[in-house]
Specification:
This protein has 166 residues and is of the alpha+beta class. It is built from three helices and seven strands.
Amino acid sequence: MRRLLIVGVLVGMVLSLAACGDSSSDAETAALQLKADKYEIEQIEKTFHQAMSLQDIDLMVSLWAPNATLTVGPEATAAGVDEIRQFWLERSVVFAPETTWVVDHPAYKMGVTVNGDLGTVHFECHFVNYETGEIEAITSADQDVARIDGRWLITNMVGGSTELTL
């Protein structure tokens, strides 16, 4: 009888500890997933600026969801990957062949949020003419992003102008 009681108490303790372990591992898993998601969203911003600096339209378009939108001013909205591609090629100075800019993106001017499979990213772009060293333009962007088929993509972007601040 005493042996049965001891075994019962030990089983109860093991089950209690296992239950506690599950909740902490769930919290740890959630925290790791949040870090991973933020990292992947930050990669969108880095790749976005790399695509502009290299004038690589295919790299740029690879960041967008199929039904994404891009708005840069009144009456200046592109919807869908094809229109977004055309916008960058036809209306953006950045992709003009004669443009000699590199795009700087100060890390301290970026913010990322994550809520499940949705997120946001805000950043500034400083366009520096690599031949003259002059800052040619400064813009900002607010992007909505979503995890689609396991990959984070831009679903909506609103771009605007801003002033250089330190």
